[in-house]
Write a structure and sequence with these properties.
223 residues, alpha/beta, Rossmann fold, seven-stranded mixed β-sheet, 8 helices, 22% strand, globular
Length: 223
């Protein structure tokens, strides 16, 4: 499915969010608190926007990896990196539930709009925690459901009716019918924070943005 929608992914994201998804990724990158020389992994990287946002913030001597299971998304991410002259970012295939990285490999692991697609969210967070260095930071940017009207009512109409229409116009109604279903089944912010705690992360906090539509979570692997 993600291979199929890769070509329209950036455009549809911009239409669905009125372009705000870029600002949300910037906020997530801020939460990563990167330092020169850090090793950073952006998991479920899609077409690479968050991975490249991380890379552009610090000196080139760090290690920069974007990982995804969609090969077409990875191709587009590589093209985007080349267009920006950021040839030192590596994009590679990986299964988020069985990451091909050794324990304590990264200072930062981020995920932007990808955790809700995991078959086992808790297992995915445990894998992210495993590959973090002691003191390393996990940052999760994800869509969530607003709980209070009028935004909660607007959100239901937008995601349940309008987004599938956008998907049909984009040429893949199944994929954009899946999107609202994945958001409905995803844990609310407090529950996601609890899963991060169960995975062994500490200092967990989350910020809800855009009236309750977006949440940014972060936590640290104990030193």
């Amino acid at each position: 499915m993600f291979d199929r929608i890769a070509g329209v992914y950036d455009l549809v994201n911009t239409v669905m969010t009125a372009g705000l998804h870029h600002a949300w990724r910037e906020r997530a990158a801020d939460r990563a608190e990167l330092r020169p020389g850090d090793a950073a992994l952006d998991l479920c990287c899609g077409t690479g926007d968050l991975a490249l946002e991380l890379r552009e913030r610090v000196e080139a001597r760090g290690r920069w990896v974007g990982a995804d299971f969609s090969e077409r998304m990875l191709e587009l991410a590589e093209n985007k990196a080349a267009d920006r002259g950021l040839a030192d970012v590596t994009f590679e295939w990986a299964d988020a539930l069985e990451l091909p990285y050794s324990e304590a490999s990264f200072d930062t692991v981020t995920v932007g709009f990808g955790v809700r697609n995991l078959a086992d969210v808790g297992a995915g967070i445990r894998e992210m925690t495993r590959i973090l260095k002691p003191g390393g930071r996990c940052v999760i940017l994800e869509i969530t459901q607003p709980q209070k009207p009028p935004l909660s009512s607007f959100f239901k109409v937008w995601f349940n009716r309008i987004v599938p229409v956008i998907g049909r116009v984009a040429g893949d109604s199944d994929a954009y019918s899946y999107l609202p279903e994945s958001v409905r089944s995803f844990p609310p912010p407090a529950k996601l924070a609890a899963l991060m705690d169960e995975a062994g992360l500490t200092g967990i906090r989350y910020t809800v943005l855009a009236g309750g539509i977006i949440a940014i979570h972060s936590g640290v692997r104990p030193a």
